Amino acid sequence: MTADTLPKLLKQQAEKYGHRKHALREKDYGIWQSFTWQEYYEHVKYFCLGMVSLGLKRDDKVSIIGDNRPEWIYSELASQCVGAIPIGIYQDSVLKEVSYIINLSRSKFVVAEDQEQCDKILDMIDDIPSVEHIIYHDPKGMRVYDDPKLIYFPDVEELGRSYEAENPAFFDLQVEATREEDAASICTTSGTTGNPKLSLLSHRNMVTMAQNLGEVDKKYETDEFVSFLPLPWIGEQMMAISSALLFGFTVNFPEKPETAQDNVREIGPHVMFSPPRVWENMAASVQVRIMDASPLKRKVYNFCLPIGYHWADLKFQKKTPTLIDKLKYGLAYCLVFRALKDRLGFSHIRSASTGGAALGPDTFRFFHALGVNLKQIYGQTEISGISCIHYDGDIDFDSVGKPIPGTEIKITEEGEIISRSSSLFMGYFENQEATDETIIDGWLHSGDAGYFNDRGHLVVIDRVKDVMTLADGTKFSPQFIENKLKFSPYIKEAVAIGHERDYIVAMICIDFEIVGKWAENNRLAYTTYTDLASQEPIYGMIQKEMANVNEGLPEAARIKKFVLLYKELDADDDELTRTRKVRRRFVDEKYSDIINGMYADLEIVHIDTLIKYQDGKTKQLKTDLLVKSF
User: Fold this and answer.
1) Quick one: pLDDT at residue 488?
2) Which pLDDT score, from 0 to 100, does residue 24 have?
3) 121 vs 414, which has greater pLDDT?
4) Where, residue-wise, is CATH 3.40.50.12780 in the chain?
5) How far is CA 135 from CA 68, 74, 144, in A?
């Protein structure tokens, strides 16, 4: 049997390793629980048969919502084994987002992790008529629930064992019948302009992508990987499922999202794939710790870091280090970098990648200074996540690297990036019009503007539709400016505005934790986020950070004015997508009073608005925003 589908790969690995090797590991109540490849296979098998006994059929849809857990992966693969199609929903999605996806996909089953997720589903049960069963795997708080659609995960597996007793050959025949052209999964797009589209990915898409990526970014069966990013994201699907099944490495699940960094340190992964904000937060956390360190430690750190930067620059410039360079770096590594890598969980890291947005040069240099081989990845959900990567020894932090094997990339006359490969998706579910607009003559039109530099690396500028034009006709990329701003550890989010205006302005969200630490070190008292963001010293500090960014921008693309927003941009408020991309049109409309105030040359913008908290409570907020100019 050729292992050309994900269920076949699982069966192949279970036959190869049996109980001799761990496939999955989960931290629960402070203890790491391990599952062998044979146990992994059996959980998938019996959960699959249990759902079949409850009525699951080929082409049925199974929605999965919750934190990263083995049960998530069991549910996904179990669905695929009989030709059903799983679809992941981000665990922090609000009711309207959950109901939209369930109704559009007409999901028959929902696998919900715990009481919180079950409450979401039950609160809208009358609005999602296709759902017949809600399966939960964390029983805490569920004892008093009596809805007939609810069923406990282990009980479904027991139904599967009973079904196997009556149909002993059924499961193997179903797995063997899976074909590489079958739909394997539905992944949601980011939905920056509205509701997300549902991308249909086949087994061929998922398996060939893992194979092609593995040719230039090696994975081994001895590797450890920590899965802490949302599993609905195509990047996590590619690592925790496709690559893990293909190469046989171990996937580890943290106890909870808040402990992910500590759990990463415990495991010491060999492979890591995270969006820029994760890397930026780690680099910023080091800076915060250094602020609290003793004078001697700060002095040693400040002595060693420039040595590391010089070493990283030699790598970027492809220059051979001298003997003196090697001795200096060896000393710096022993004094600082080795311990710092261990503190971050990177003692064994071999492959580290970032994707989803641009990562700042300073962050790149920082991790390469420590000895972490950090690379940029570029791609879209529609091409199974990845089309370009930095190759080993060829890092260019202004680019996203070169196309991976099996992927072709061209730039159209309009400057749009288009690509094609065997990983090109099957199309958008129930949306042929959007599919026809996206795939033209076999090429995926990304909607991104870019070009190839003289090293053959792809440089991504911005979304084609987001490139803006000033009143004098000068074009600029708001995303390019925003990414530059977010290189600062003090700036969590930024929105650049200026289309058909005389100049560019920006709305800034501070990083509450890091700016709060700066305020404490400078003896600045504050209470809430709004209070901290409104204080003059904070404006002064951010203004210096932005002035540094402006120096690196073309004259026409420099920011002339800015405000610090009174709240963070939030996906629950429809300001960001679940992958933290700005919904630009919505934000421009919501904060139009602030934007118009900046262009009206006001020094203070008065705010009187309603704030909605996560628990549903609301509060009237009255505050003043300072408008600062350069």
Assistant:
1) 83
2) 97
3) 121
4) 6-177+221-250
5) 16, 12, 15
- Measured CA to CA, the distance from residue 150 to residue 461 in angstroms comes to 48
Where are the domain boundaries for CATH 3.30.300.30 in the chain? 467-629
Pairing mode, strands 504-510 and 559-564 = parallel
536-551 vs 478-486: helix crossing angle, rounded to 10: 120
Mean pLDDT, the chain, integer:
92
pLDDT the model gives residue 280 = 82
pLDDT digits (tens, 9 = 90+) for 475-486: 888 988 888 888
- According to the 3-state scheme, what is the secondary structure of 327-351? HHHHHHHHHHHHHHHHHHCCCCCCE
Task: Quote the CA–CA distance of 78 and 554 in Å, as a whole number.
Answer: 53
Q: What is the pLDDT of residue 193?
A: 54
Cα dihedral 363, 365, 370, 375 in deg (nearest 10): 80
Write the DSSP string, 461-508.
EEEGGG-EE-TTS-EE-HHHHHHHHHTSTTEEEEEEE-TTSSSEEEEE
Q: Are residues 315 and 369 in contact, defined by beta-carbon separation less than 8 angstroms?
A: no
Q: For residue range 560-606, what is the model confidence (pLDDT) as tens digits?
A: 999 999 999 888 787 887 777 788 888 999 999 999 999 999 999 99
The torsion of the CA quartet 479, 482, 488, 489, rounded to 10 degrees, works out to: -90
The single-letter DSSP state of residue 259 is G
Is 191 in contact with 579 (CB distance < 8 Å)? Answer: no
List, for residues 406-441, the tens digit of each pLDDT value: 999 999 998 899 999 999 999 999 999 999 999 999
35-40, long-range: CB < 8 A, 24+ apart = 35/70, 37/13, 37/248, 38/14, 40/10, 40/14, 40/70, 40/74
Q: How far is CA 207 from CA 245, 385, 473, in A?
A: 9, 12, 46
CATH number, domain 467-629, options 3.30.300.30, 3.40.640.10, 3.30.930.10, 3.30.70.1050 = 3.30.300.30
Under CATH, which number does the domain 6-177+221-250 receive? 3.40.50.12780
Q: Which two tokens stand for residue 189?
A: 């797009």
Can you give 305-330 as a three-state secondary structure string? HHHHHHHHHHHHCCCCCCHHHHHHHH
**615 vs 291, higher pLDDT:** 291
Between CA 181 and CA 179 the distance in angstroms is 5
Q: Within the chain, how many helices (H) and strands (E) appear?
A: 23, 30
Q: How many CB atoms lie within 10 A of CB 308?
A: 23
What span, in angstroms and rounded, lies between the C-alpha atoms of 506 and 563?
A: 7
